[in-house]
TrEMBL record:
Protein name stated in the entry: ABC-type quaternary amine transporter
InterPro entries: AAA+_ATPase (IPR003593), ABC_transporter-like_ATP-bd (IPR003439), ABC_transporter-like_CS (IPR017871), CBS_dom_sf (IPR046342), P-loop_NTPase (IPR027417)
Matching SMART domains: AAA (SM00382)
Residues of the ABC transporter domain: 2-237
UniProt similarity note: Belongs to the ABC transporter superfamily.
Enzyme Commission number(s) of this protein: 7.6.2.9
Keywords, ordered alphabetically: ATP-binding, Nucleotide-binding, Transport
UniProt GO MF annotations: ABC-type quaternary ammonium compound transporting activity; ATP binding; ATP hydrolysis activity
Enzyme class: translocase
Length: 389
């Protein structure tokens, strides 16, 4: 655990970048520092690896004051990733990644083997190993930056706006990969961003800082969205808090129906039986159970194949039942021309459908359950008990 205890940083010109900040950063999880430009995020991060020394207060790593530790050893225990990757321009990709292991005295063969493994782990093709940084895209360079930071297997990873310089699509991909790598490696990650959506996607816990380096709120993303501490945090979170919070509700409990589903080889009689369920639309699937599209029952009087697949009403984008959130399910229903969302399994086969009304009920239930959990936790805390989150 990293404990930040009442740290203040006043720069030589009198600027107070961080003011009496205290935070407990738990092990093996992602803690995001977020806030408007100039609120002291980078200064805080750099005090953790002692690139900036605090004016007062202290930081403990696993109970040890970091100021009592040799700075080189401290930095080697902390990978550091910055915007634009900060790669060595005259070293190959493999040599860039092998830098820290080599500094630690590993022999060349072992360091290069480790670097090759890491290239694979961060999704870089081995054919890029001999290139130089300028021969890589921005997204690839960021991947190299992450691989380099992980090379000596440090327990802590400090990341300062690592994905800010790449386009939104690559950024999403890199965020997904970071979550995948974190699932495998379980590092203690401190991640700086000014993008609240990135914070919500990546953070197990989020520290919102306000200008002047003061802590506005320290909470899990779901708590932040449901209970912003004050008007500043609410404003910083922006519009659509309610809908964004649905990302934390699983679709596992959503009631699905298979009543309006017909296979493409269904006969007229089978279609009539499905239509009797009073569904305004029937979902036609191929014989493998994958969705083809919706049709009104009356247009399928000659059996499910009476409307060519190309003329069926689009089913939009399906959601994966149990894995995707209620926000995904709602999004599917809202985007679907019929107002019904299609749920599939991990192979893309239809497992059921849900109407906007059913999804609305699931959302209400999920809110009630979250509310009950929160009040159980509050009662347990009042009684001095600890309950699992
Ligand atoms: N070396 C320095 N000397 C004086 N002031 C500094 C120095 N470095 C940063 N500051 C100031 O300290 C404040 C916090 O800066 P910091 O870079 O930590 O903020 P930040 O939240 O990371 O900002 P951004 O999101 O824009 O990167 C700002 O007002 C900045 O101008």
């Amino acid at each position: 655990m990293i404990q930040i205890e009442s740290i203040t940083k006043r720069y030589a010109d009198g600027t107070v970048a961080v003011d009496d900040l205290s935070l407990e950063i738990p092990d093996s999880s992602i803690t995001v520092l977020v806030g408007p430009s100039g609120c002291g995020k980078t200064t805080t991060l750099r005090m953790i690896n002692r690139m900036v020394e605090p004016s007062s207060g202290r930081i403990l790593l696993d109970g040890q004051d970091i100021h009592q530790q040799p700075v080189n050893a401290l930095r080697r225990s902390m990978g550091y990733v910055i915007q634009n990757a900060g790669l060595f321009p005259h070293r190959t990709i493999l040599a860039n990644i092998a830098t820290v292991p080599r500094m630690l005295g590993w022999d060349k063969v072992r360091a290069r083997k480790r670097a090759s493994e890491l290239m694979e782990r961060v999704g870089l093709d081995s054919s890029l190993a001999k290139r130089y940084p300028y021969q890589l895209s921005g997204g690839q360079q960021q991947r190299v930056g992450v691989a380099r930071a992980l090379a000596a297997d440090p327990p802590v990873l400090l990341m300062d706006e690592p994905f800010s310089a790449v386009d939104p699509i690559v950024r999403k991909v890199l965020q997904g990969e970071l979550l995948r790598i974190q699932e495998e490696l379980g590092k203690t990650i401190v991640f700086v961003t000014h993008d609240i959506d990135e914070a919500i996607r990546l953070g197990d816990t989020i520290a919102v800082l306000r200008t002047g380096g003061k802590l506005a709120q320290f909470a899990a993303p779901d708590d932040l969205l449901s209970h912003p501490a004050d008007a500043f945090v609410e404003d910083f979170l922006g519009a659509g808090r309610g809908v964004r919070r649905l990302s934390f509700f699983t679709s596992a409990g959503l009631e699905l129906t298979t009543a309006p589903i017909v296979a493409a080889d269904a006969t007229d009689a089978q279609v009539a039986e499905r239509a009797a369920a009073d569904a305004p639309y029937l979902l036609v699937t191929d014989t493998d159970g994958k969705p083809l599209g919706w049709a009104e029952p009356k247009s399928l009087t000659g059996g499910a194949s009476s409307v060519p697949a190309a003329e069926l009403i689009s089913y939009g984008r399906p959601f994966e039942s149990g894995r995707d959130s209620l926000r995904d399910a709602l999004d599917c229903a809202v985007l679907s021309p019929t107002g019904w969302a299609v749920a599939v399994d991990d192979t893309g086969r239809v497992v059921g459908v849900a109407s906007q009304l059913t999804i609305g009920d699931a959302i209400r239930r999920a809110h009630a359950e979250k509310g009950a959990e929160a009040s159980d936790r509050a009662s347990a805390a009042a009684a001095g008990l600890k309950v699992a989150p």
